[in-house]
Specification:
This protein has helices spanning 2-9, 14-41, 85-103, 109-125, 128-133, 145-162, 176-198, 202-210, 212-220, 228-233, 238-247, 250-264, 271-290, and strands at 77-78, 81-82. It has 296 residues and is mostly helical. It has a domain at 1-141. It has a two-stranded antiparallel sheet. Helix 2 packs antiparallel against helix 6, helix 7 (176-198) packs antiparallel against helix 8 (202-210) and helix 8 (202-210) runs antiparallel to helix 9.
Length: 296
């Protein structure tokens, strides 16, 4: 307890720690649940078919081509509508933020709110791809962007926990040279983080806002070939573009894909075909619930 009091509580890092713990634990639990539901849903029905009593509608917890089995955990539906867990996450983030802004509670309630905020952020970011595509792409290749969002969120939370101020303390003497030096440091630091983002390194840029060294490394290294920086700066420099394509080539993408699959599970049908199938299945299910159209 002495170490916790000295290095976490007294340093003002307790809310950041609890938010990160809530974020990581919630992501692990949610992915375990959704992968379990997916495994049940894709199990073959009698004679190799699917369960006619529960027609499959693609989604985070009910992929295409399978059946849904009732168990201890399952989809949450209200009025026949599947409620994605991002809804609960958004509500939790809004509620905890409102309570923190209004009451600014002291310990231990600030830690409780931070824990709930982290849990809500994980629930919401776990379905980040649904925000981006406004479609049910959870188990498709496009849905892997949710894992990227989770990794960025977790890394940013860790950086906030380990860092205090990314640019040091503001000058106390108030002299003009000290103020100028402080402003220049802040501007240079933010420019480096912005350059990293322009080079296609969103995670590096965001983390670099908190950790200056990360921003510096991201700014000086090669840009990703598809980034804005590469399109503008490497157009007349074929050797530099070739180096970037080798650096971020198939081996780099394969490593990223293995990590995302390890954390979130293997995707199903990729791209527009999977998304179109999901949309068509939802339309069919809604039509069957509403009944045949009225005739005049």
């Amino acid at each position: 307890m002495g170490w916790y009091t000295e290095h976490v509580l007294d340093a003002g890092r307790a809310p950041a720690l609890f938010a990160l713990v809530g974020f990581v634990l919630t992501f692990v639990v949610v992915r375990a649940i959704t992968r379990r539901i997916r495994a049940r849903s894709t199990a073959p029905g009698p004679a190799g078919g699917t369960d006619a009593a529960h027609p499959a509608v693609p989604g985070p917890d009910r992929p295409a081509g399978g059946r849904e089995r009732r168990g201890l955990v399952g989809d949450v539906t209200i009025g026949g509508v599947h409620v994605h867990h991002q809804v609960w996450g958004i509500l939790l983030v809004l509620l905890t933020g409102m309570l923190e802004f209004r009451y600014s509670p002291a310990s231990p309630w600030s830690e409780v709110l931070a824990l709930l905020f982290g849990a809500g952020a994980a629930l919401a970011l776990d379905e980040f791809a649904l925000w981006l595509y406004v479609d049910d792409v959870y188990w498709t290749q496009d849905g892997q962007k949710s894992i990227t969002a989770i990794l960025v969120g977790g890394a940013l939370g860790g950086a906030l926990l380990l860092s205090t101020s990314p640019v040091g303390e503001s000058p106390e003497d108030g002299t003009a040279p000290a103020r100028v030096a402080f402003v220049v440091t802040v501007v240079v630091h933010l420019v480096l983080a912005f350059v990293a983002v322009l080079k296609g390194k969103l995670a590096t840029g965001l983390i670099g806002v908190v950790v200056p060294l990360v921003a510096l490394v991201g700014a000086v290294r090669l840009a990703k070939p598809a980034s804005y920086w590469a399109r503008r700066r490497y157009a007349g420099r074929p050797r530099r573009r070739e180096r970037a394509e080798r650096r971020f080539g198939p081996r780099y993408r394969a490593r990223q894909e293995r990590l995302r699959t390890l954390l979130g599970g293997a995707p199903g049908p990729a791209g527009a075909a999977g998304a179109a199938g999901a949309a068509e299945a939802r339309t069919t299910a809604q039509s069957s619930r509403s009944g045949p159209p009225a005739t005049g």
